[in-house]
Amino acid sequence: MDLLDRDGLTEREFLERYQPGDYERPSVAADMVIFTVTDAEADSYRKLPEKELRVLLIRRGGHPFLGKWALPGGFVRPDETTEQAAARELREETGVEDVYLEQLYTFSDVGRDPRTWVMSCSYMALINSDQVKLQAGDDAADAAWFKVTYRLMRESKELTGDGYIKTLQYELKLISEDAELTAVVEKTITVKPSSTATAYAVVSNDGLAFDHAKMIALAIERLRGKVNYTDIALHLMPGLFTLTELQQVYEVILDKELLKAAFRRKVADLVTETDHYTENAGHRPSRLFRRKMEE
Amino acid sequence: MDLLDRDGLTEREFLERYQPGDYERPSVAADMVIFTVTDAEADSYRKLPEKELRVLLIRRGGHPFLGKWALPGGFVRPDETTEQAAARELREETGVEDVYLEQLYTFSDVGRDPRTWVMSCSYMALINSDQVKLQAGDDAADAAWFKVTYRLMRESKELTGDGYIKTLQYELKLISEDAELTAVVEKTITVKPSSTATAYAVVSNDGLAFDHAKMIALAIERLRGKVNYTDIALHLMPGLFTLTELQQVYEVILDKELLKAAFRRKVADLVTETDHYTENAGHRPSRLFRRKMEE
DNA sequence: AAAATAGTGTCTTTCAGACAGTATTTG
DNA sequence: CAAATACTGTCTGAAAGACACTATTTT
User: Fold this and answer.
1) How wide is the angle at C-alpha B206 spanned by C-alphas B202 and B208, nearest 5°?
2) Residue B154: left (phi > 0), alpha (psi -120 to 50), or beta?
3) Which in A47, A136, A217, B159 has the greatest CB count within 10 A?
4) Considering only CB atoms, which chain B residues are within 8 Å of A3?
5) A272: part of which helix (H) or strand (E)?
6) Which residues of chain B lie closer than 8 angstroms to A11, CB-CB?
7) B243 near B270, Cβ under 8 Å?
8) Within 7 Å: CB of B273 and strand C?
């Protein structure tokens, strides 16, 4: 192919002479919502421990948002994709290598970073409690796992002339051993005859940096959506697990109780049974399952 | 809040003195997959016309990819979000203002643009045939609507030691009045005990610029996925439409025939019936419906 | 009447919700 | 035996698949 452009150049000539213009360019960061599930303290050793959904946050050691908690992340380098940058941050922060990683959304609101023009491509990572143990040797001293809850608090609908605006307010709560953060995220759905638009806004925010409350909210919504029709939740499970544990994970993600019989029917084709059982549990042993790797 | 950082600065002082470093930054473009549905020519005026799913492409007038077809798009400016940039491009290209717009994915492969470091945040827009008429006055002379088909051609699965790799090859065909483009997009799903990764690659590509074959493939997959559990397809319909037309749109998106009775039951709560009917159709008139704006 | 599309009725199958019942282990 | 969890059986009702049937218009 040797097409010539208006200046009579071939593509090779064009590229050899190409000089990037000096118009403004944004910095692009990759930020990660890293989820895991851990056992809460049980009242008695005969009772099963409850499961908690947790997110990793890092306390900011410099301006802006000094002292606030932020998602792990960093700037993308010219020789890597946003996904590679996310995986690199994940490795640096947690030592974990082989995890489920999914791009969520690219945030580009003007002024979202008070320093300069910064976009953020956000990712969701799911790691299981086996892998989390490796978290010891991280460089950011002020990293902590926060228990997450995300709950619809208020719902309203306003009719406009030719459509309506639905407003949903969610309370996002993040609780660690020594900090408790709360944010309210508002989801606004504007329905008009020829369009539907959804926008997120942070209404109040106590302790989270940047627009990271929005990112966490979006991640939870994605997780909740996918749990119902994929095997995504299995990435939060250790190698061997009981169906009751799996059900607890679904319940903590969806923030709602499920019926045992129906749940077992539903996940039957996502798991493979093994010949192992739990031991010394203070009650009847439970069969252990693995994630199904065929099909 | 007047916390001081290690240099003893308040946040305000820090920001006043902040100088962006001179590390490399990418350009960020917003590219759009604009879908619409139009009637194909009918054999006889007594037969219903078939529906076609179409995408807007623009022939490149300069290097790189001179003469190839590309998605409409452009660079994001510092005073706008990627979404605003997408909406701006859409307006410039088609004159259309009020449409369904959804962020798809941010592409950042190294070398995806041969000139320089460019990421692209891709969007999907759905516009209806009423709105498309406005397309006359566009600046890019070489814009054309292409009929799209996207079909699974080959499927294979290879077992690895502890998991498997599934490879799906899709043929993407784009046909306009005077051009026919074909690309093969390969979707690779790598399943390992603690992760699942999906990657897209363009295996062959005849006539599309950049990685735009991947973007279109991703857009179609998103559209197909959402059609089943949202009212997204209604954004492709004009103000009044028959249920048969709506079914045709579902069928052309999903590339599969649906059963009439079941379809009507399924969409019943997405539409509102009107008192209008089609006229002079050469057969029994059909009731016209609108998109349901309540609930 | 023929051609064409519009629209409905209903049987079957599948699957989720609901709930009760049985089974197994430890203290 | 009591406490605790594990696991199964089955009824019901909602929704999707399948297919046949009726209805209405134009030529």
Assistant:
1) 75
2) beta
3) A217
4) 66-67
5) strand A271-277
6) 63-66, 114
7) no
8) no
The pTM for the full model equals 0.95
Residue A186 structure tokens: 């508002």
Single-letter amino acid code for the residue at A87? A
> Could you identify the residue whose CA is nearest to the C1' atom of nucleotide D7?
A261
Q: Spell out a b/e string for A21-41, using b for 16 or more CB atoms within 10 Å of the CB, else e.
A: eeeebbbbbbbbbbbbbbeee
Nucleotide nearest to A264 (CA to C1'): D7
Contact predicate B35/B219, CB 8 Å: yes
Spacing of C-alpha B162 from chain mean position: 35
3-state SS string for B100-149 = EEEEEEEECCCCCCCCCCEEEEEEEEECCHHHHHHHHCCCCCCEEEEEEE
Pairing assessment for the beta strands B241-242 and B195-206 based on DSSP bridges: unpaired
Q: Which of B108, B131, B158, B235 is most worth mutating to test chain A (most A CB atoms within 10 A of its CB)?
A: B108
Q: How many CB atoms lie within 10 A of CB B21?
A: 10
Q: Nearest C-alpha of chain B: how many angstroms from A141?
A: 16
Which residues touch A281 (CB under 8 Å, ≥6 apart)?
none
- Beta carbons of B108 and A194 less than 8 Å apart: no
Residue-level pLDDT, tens digit, chain B, 295 residues: 588 888 888 889 888 888 877 789 999 999 999 999 999 976 677 888 999 999 999 999 998 999 999 999 999 999 999 999 999 999 988 889 899 999 999 999 999 999 999 999 999 999 998 887 645 445 556 899 999 999 999 999 999 999 999 999 999 999 999 899 999 999 999 999 999 999 999 999 999 999 999 999 999 999 999 999 999 999 999 999 999 999 999 999 999 999 999 999 999 999 999 999 998 778 899 999 999 997 7
- Mapping DSSP to helix (H, G, I), strand (E, B) and coil, where does residue A255 land? coil
From A24's Cα to the closest Cα of chain B, the distance in A is 7
3-state secondary structure of B26: coil
Verify cis geometry, omega within 30 degrees of 0, for the bond prior to B64.
yes
C-alpha B114/C-alpha B112 separation (Å) is: 6
What is the spatial distance, in angstroms and rounded to an integer, between the CA atom of A258 and the C1' atom of C19?
13
* Rounded distance in angstroms from the CA atom of residue B99 to the C1' atom of nucleotide D13: 39
Q: Is the C-beta atom of A195 closer than 7 angstroms to strand C?
A: no
The reply to whether residue B192 touches residue A109, judged by beta carbons under 8 angstroms, is: no
Whether the upstream peptide bond of residue B285 has omega within 30° of 0, thus cis, is no
Which of B109, B116, B121 faces A81 most closely, judged by CB atoms?
B109
